[in-house]
Amino acid sequence: MAGYYRKRGCKCEEGKKCTCGATWSFTLDIGRDPVTNKRKQKEVGGFKTKREAIKACAELMTEYERGSYVAEKNTLFKDFVKTWLEIYGPTVKVSSLRVRKHESDKLIKYFGNLKLKDITKKKYQAALNALKKEGLGDNTVSGVHTTGRMIFTKAMELDEVKTNPTLYARVPRVRKTLVEVEQEEATVKYLEKEQLAKFLQTAKEQGLEQDYPIFLTLAYSGMRAGELCALRWPDLNEKEQSISIARTYYNPTNRTREYQLLTPKTKSSKRTIDVDKLVIDELKKHRAKQNAIKMEYRKIYHDGDFIFAKTDALNVGYPEFIKTIENRMRRLLKLAGLNEKLTPHSLRHTHTSLMAEAGVGLTEIMERLGHKDDDTTRSVYLHVTKTMKKEASQKFSELMRSL
Q1: Fewer CB atoms inside 10 Å of the end CB: C or N, the chain?
Q2: Are 48 and 136 in contact (CB under 8 A)?
């Protein structure tokens, strides 16, 4: 195996320094074609000096001798993403595929018409930086980077490229000022117990149909809105006073009849939650009302056995939208004079704070919420317990001063 070097298109006088910008290339014999027996050659160009060409040729020879050579292809990034999604899709839930498709689209914006092999570490990092400058959040850019790593890992596995430009990339993060951190910490993302009581009382007295049982269940269980929408009556165990979480509702287009029931978010999300007798009694009342609706619309009722089903004649029996629950919560918060920016997910944080206040440990709360780990839940818990410890210290001081 030998290399041959030449300078292409040089118009300078021989023996003098080259000023025309011509580059060096090398041609390497790599054996014979097993079918035609013709000599096979590999030509690579674009080197500024002969020394660079010799070095690259030596590296290529080493790759051939070790059997580690990868003949990079001319596949465009956007075309490979389609291939990757076809491979990835059948291995995950439709919701996960949708997220990866959305994130890969952001990379296609920068690399779509580039060949995979031409995307360098520098270009990839520049794309992440540009996405951050667009105003995307840290978690969004991090998700895009995760998708990018998955794409290029598969590209290497399929011998499309020799190197992975995502390996040493960093997700750019804007360092927050002390004022911004303090403002974030001061932002209340949950309801205090008095506020929750007021919210639930408002739902009971001024709520629309099903509002009270919906928000009572969310507040007393800490379950996700998607888990609530997927609940079926067999999931309710009146005797044990518990609710089993076995699935989640998925309907990104909000088309009533195109919903899907998926497996829970994680393995730990599949769980059984003990609930107060108040919740069980309210759900029994709710079932009696639902049975009356079933009888009225028995010919057209979509009987999927859902606990919280639509009641309008056109879609009666189909599971309720998550978006509807969000809108109804906003309405109730406004009526109660509470923070209208809170969402059904805020009731999970509320559940965390009140459980912590009641002395329940973080591990038990995590299990109840179906979390292996969650930074927000942990921060809510630590905030509440820190306040409790401070109050305990103050009570001790007051006791000693009273002596």
Answers
A1: C
A2: no
Note whether residue 208 is domain-resident.
yes
Query: Has residue 42 got a pLDDT over 50?
Result: yes
| Contacts for 91-99: CB closer than 8 Å, 24+ residues apart | 93/250, 93/262, 93/263, 94/250, 94/260, 94/262, 95/250, 95/252, 95/262, 98/252, 99/143
What's the token pair of residue 80?
A: 């490979």
Q: Are both 317 and 244 inside the same structural domain?
A: yes
Question: Which residues have a Cβ under 8 Å from the Cβ of 75 and sit 6 or more positions away?
Answer: 115, 116, 160
| Half-sphere exposure for 162 (CA within 13 Å, toward CB) | 10
Q: Which two tokens stand for residue 76?
A: 């465009």
8-state DSSP, 271: E
Q: Express each pLDDT in 132-141 by its tens digit.
A: 999 898 889 9
Same domain, 223 and 259: yes
Q: What is the pTM of this model?
A: 0.72
Q: Which of 17-21, 60-64, 193-197, 239-243 has the lowest mean pLDDT?
A: 17-21
Residue 68 has pLDDT above 80, yes or no: no
> Residue 88 is part of a domain; what is its CATH number?
1.10.150.130
